[in-house]
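Fold this sequence, please.
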Amino acid sequence: MSTGARASAPPALRKSRRERRILHTQEIQVRQTHRRRKFLTRSGVLAGFLLAMVVYPVMGTLTPYAGAVESVPGAVAGENPSTARALLGGGPQLVESELPLPEADASSVLATAFEIDVSQHLPGCDPIDGWEGYNGRLTADSLCDVGQGEQLRNDAAVAFAELNNRFSQEFGRDICLIDGYRTLSSQYATKRSRGFLAATPGTSVHGWGLAIDLCSGDASGAPKAWLEENGALWGWVNPSWAKSSKWEPWHFEYEPGTDELGVYGSSYWSSADAYRSSD
């Protein structure tokens, strides 16, 4: 620029180096001030967040337990309790209970144990001494009257008495029977009259006093359905053969007795085999 041009420049543009340096310094200070304010603002927000989310909850959790040692059983202030005692205390305290014991129902007991001793529904029938005799020729002490002119082996008889009691509660009458224990002579008579439907004399389950035949009314409908569903609770079942190879819905057997004899297995006792049970 020529001397004439520099002389003609406006006074505002003709600043000295010192003035420019002062102005630049002021601008730097302003920028630094803004930065400090931003930093302080952000730091305050962050500090508040930490106080609200971390410090206060931790202090609030710890403060109630400041004197917790006094509440630990067996702990003494100024002494450190063991970890187990601090966590578990002095152990569980057993509280004496006065709750009454449940009363056993006679029917439910009989339903879960086939070794039946006596039944209040058949007084005088006691199977505890066991039984003895042959098929169709059991001793008198081995048999009990179950009503309707029929007899059964003593253990089968008390089980039937319990079953009959429940049946009478349901239907208002006894189970209707047309047959029970068969002597050897009656087995021959039945074989002559019924043919293939009757077992060979001396092998019939009736001859062991372990089978009953129902009246036609109880061999179908609601009574039969009830016996099918509930009879097994007292050991009385309509065997599988009576539902397949021979159709005899009226025939029920005392299964614990037939299992004991092995009636449907290799150990079955015929009329030629003497048998005496133990107690």
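The chain has two domains: 13-87, 106-276. The helical segments are 3-7, 17-62, 83-88, 106-112, 154-171, 184-194, 221-230, 255-261.
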